[in-house]
Design brief:
The chain is α/β, with parallel strands linked by helices. It has 5 domains: about 220 residues, GAF domain (Beta-Lactamase, 2-Layer Sandwich); about 90 residues, Beta-Lactamase (2-Layer Sandwich), CATH 3.30.450; about 180 residues, 3-Layer(aba) Sandwich (Rossmann fold); about 70 residues, Helicase, Ruva Protein, domain 3, CATH 1.10.8.60; about 60 residues, Homeodomain-like (Arc Repressor Mutant, subunit A), CATH 1.10.10. About 40% of the residues lie in helices and about 15% in strands. It contains 25 helices and 18 strands. The strands form 5 sheets. Strands 2-1-5-4-3 form a 5-stranded antiparallel sheet, with helices on both faces. The protein has a 5-stranded parallel sheet with strand order 11-12-15-10-16. Strand 13 and strand 14 form a beta hairpin. Helix 11 runs parallel beside helix 12 and helix 22 crosses helix 23. It is globular.
Length: about 675
């Protein structure tokens, strides 16, 4: 009867028979356990028994057939909080969406509390998973859903598979699931779970191995992300060190951990807060999740010493500036602001470019610089809007006054008013006992540069309009009018006209700001500026890293010229830095460029070398098929990456694979890429 079955089909049927027989024994043991009878432990794994005991102690409802689910608004906030994890997991999930098709299984990513953030997989399995909240928002801690792959992996801190009858709750016994922890690359803490789930009749003993492999892939992506972020933070710390000579500096990442620390910072910090501190090391958590100093580590740390570090409008960390002063007091706001008005950074000559577009914009900016009117500077992220703002300030009537930059999107809605206008003594819980001046008063007699003006909440916009019209502010919690003489420069990468139409920006404020609007052109429209900017950044970045300037090969330069530069000048500067860091003997080739530039859609002519002795070159179908096979091997089986290497779209790659009879990988074939036999569990 089974003669017609293949070897793989026979092996699979045998596996399921073994699993079914074992599940029957486990189910009987579970019945004894919940009834209080003597438990026959022989068929039940120790990890499962301990989980059952935890569930009983927590009084988990045996009848649970669906996990609790978060409200969509809360889920959205949770996804934003875990955006780095989701970003790192995106390539793995994208691949899983392909390879899990037809397998009746799904892959899920959770946060460190077992709440599902994202899920992909076979359509049938995804719909079935929704019935038990095995989908976005599902809460799969053991206390909610009993023994399961997600909750039990979190409880024990290890990868675990829970099959059918091993589940504690009756309504979930029809499923099998394998969960593997995802660890933070810095401190090793568990930041999420990767879970693979399927109906028990569709499950495989290889699910656990695949989950571990996929979790490892995400950890590697997180490591690359973290290294890039911490490198940028170190650079920011070094950049600030030039403006804070003699001060101690500690750069802190978005999770409150030390990324960079100057040599003097440790000693100076202990002296200034008059406290003995443990040895501070890179990776040590200095701030809590709310950005507040860890009191058990650094008691009485002045909040004014902490300054947010911004990238593309987002807070990417903090800079702790420890003042080189005999008095243990924070640096006054006016002193910090004055340092921002660096004459060297406030000249139109500092804006690099020969294109007609950039020269026209410079001419416009020079024309309005001397006028005592607000200016709206529009342009995409990274085009250099702040350079124009500083140059306008440097040639204005208030050039000797402070230049105060402030990002309207970098603080919470609750704190925005107090940051801009200051607050009175006792204005709110946690307020400074003496009150505090805001950015407007800091900028009195100078320029206030409001970045991301489109993020300014609607209810605060009338107050900004009042300042523009009357030159008067009111501190939060105070009814005393205070007159300020401030020039406003506003910057945005949004279409404020569209924001007005959507009701998110006041029309009267827009008209007041846009009288003298200028638009900084994106890099892709600045013909001839790419080479000028590379020549400008090259020696400066190289000197910072104590290296020689880099020379890009003709092929690499061709890719740079063909790229659309969505991140504009800022992105170009980072690419130059990458070239300097990865160059061999001062030469940067395609391997030194980011993948999206080296192997982007424009790289359609990029060949995949075929070597005479390479097995791939011997494949039937000629070099076209060989190129596909080689690209798939280089990309580790990732279809998106292989398509990028070949310079073709995913759909074209699929079509060519079908033409040559190349099949998609089975999900469990991923194991073979990591040296694990396909039959190993």
């Amino acid at each position: 009867m089974t003669d017609h079955l293949s070897m793989d089909e026979r092996k699979l049927r045998t596996t399921f028979q073994v699993l079914d027989a074992r599940d029957f024994e486990v189910s009987k043991a579970w019945e004894h356990f919940v009834s209080g009878s003597t438990l026959d432990r022989s068929p039940v794994r120790e990890v499962v028994i301990k989980s059952w005991q935890r569930c009983r102690h927590s009084k988990v409802n045996l009848a649970v057939d669906v996990a609790p689910q978060l409200d969509s608004d809360i889920l959205g906030s949770l996804r934003r909080k875990n955006r780095e994890l989701l970003q790192a997991a995106a390539p793995t999930l994208s691949e899983a969406a392909d390879v899990l098709a037809g397998t009746n299984s799904l892959m899920l990513i959770t946060d460190p509390k077992g709440i599902v953030l994202d899920s992909v997989g076979d359509r049938k399995a995804v719909h079935a998973g929704m019935d038990i909240a095995l989908s976005q928002g599902g809460q799969w801690q053991e206390g909610n859903a009993g023994t399961n792959g997600i909750g039990t992996a979190l409880a024990i801190g290890q990868a675990v598979m829970v099959h059918a009858g091993e589940h504690y709750c009756e309504g979930i016994k029809g499923w099998s699931c394998a969960g593997a922890p995802i660890h933070d690359p810095v401190d090793g803490s568990i930041i999420g779970i990767l879970d693979i789930s399927a109906k028990k009749q569709e499950s495989s003993t290889q699910m656990l191995a695949l989950a571990v492999v996929a979790a490892s892939q995400i950890e590697q992506a997180l490591m690359r992300q973290t290294e890039a972020q911490q490198l940028r933070l170190m650079e920011m710390g070094l950049e600030h060190s030039q403006r804070h000579s003699g001060d101690g500096l500690i750069a802190i990442d978005a999770k409150g951990r030390i990324a960079y620390m100057s040599r003097l910072a440790q000693r100076m910090l202990g002296e200034r807060i008059d406290s003995a501190l443990p040895e501070l090391k890179r990776g040590m958590r200095l701030l809590d999740s709310s950005g507040r100093p860890m009191r058990e580590l650094v008691p009485d740390l002045p909040r004014d010493w902490l300054r947010p570090l911004l990238a593309d409008g987002d807070v990417t960390g903090h800079l702790l500036v420890i003042p080189a002063r005999s008095v243990a007091r924070p640096v006054p706001a006016t002193r910090a602001v004055a340092d921002e008005a660096d004459p060297a950074r406030s000249q139109f000559d500092s804006i690099v470019g020969v294109s007609d577009g950039i020269r026209h914009t410079i001419a416009q900016a020079k024309q309005i610089a001397a006028l005592n009117v607000p200016v709206l500077i529009e342009g995409e992220t990274g085009v250099g809007k702040e350079l124009f703002a500083r140059a306008i300030h440097g040639q204005s009537a208030v050039a000797r006054g402070p230049f105060v930059p402030f990002n309207c999107g970098a603080v919470s809605r609750e704190m925005l008013a107090s940051e801009l206008f200051g607050y009175a003594k006792g204005a709110f819980t946690g307020a400074n006992t003496e009150g505090r001046i805001g950015r407007f008063e800091q900028a009195d007699g100078g320029t206030l540069c409001l970045d991301e003006i489109g993020e300014l909440q609607l209810e605060l916009q009338p107050y900004l309009l009042r300042v523009l019209e009357e030159g008067v502010i009111y501190r939060v919690g105070d009814n005393v009018p205070r007159r300020v003489n401030v020039r406003i420069l506003a910057m945005t990468n949004r279409d404020l006209r569209a924001e007005v139409a959507a009701g998110r920006f006041r029309l009267d404020l827009y008209h007041r700001l846009s009288v003298t609007a200028i638009e900084v052109p994106p890099l892709r429209q600045r013909t001839g500026d790419l080479e000028c900017l590379i020549d400008y950044f090259n020696p400066r970045v190289a000197d910072r890293h104590d290296r020689e300037p880099v020379r890009f090969t003709a092929e690499a330069m061709a890719r740079l010229k063909a790229y659309s530069w969505p991140g504009n000048v800022r992105e170009l500067r980072n690419v130059v830095e990458r070239g300097i860091l990865f160059a061999q003997d001062g030469i940067a080739d395609l391997a030194c460029l980011p993948r999206e530039i080296a192997f982007g859609e424009q790289a359609v002519e990029l060949p995949i070398p075929v070597y005479p002795n390479d097995p791939a070159s011997q494949d039937a179908g000629g070099p076209d098929q060989a190129a596909i096979n080689r690209a798939m091997r280089v990309a580790g089986g990732n279809l998106s990456a292989a398509a990028a290497i070949l310079g073709i779209s995913r759909s074209t790659l699929y079509r060519k694979m079908n033409h040559y009879g190349l099949k998609r990988s089975n999900p469990f074939d991923l194991l073979s890429r990591f040296g694990m036999p396909a039959g190993e569990s």
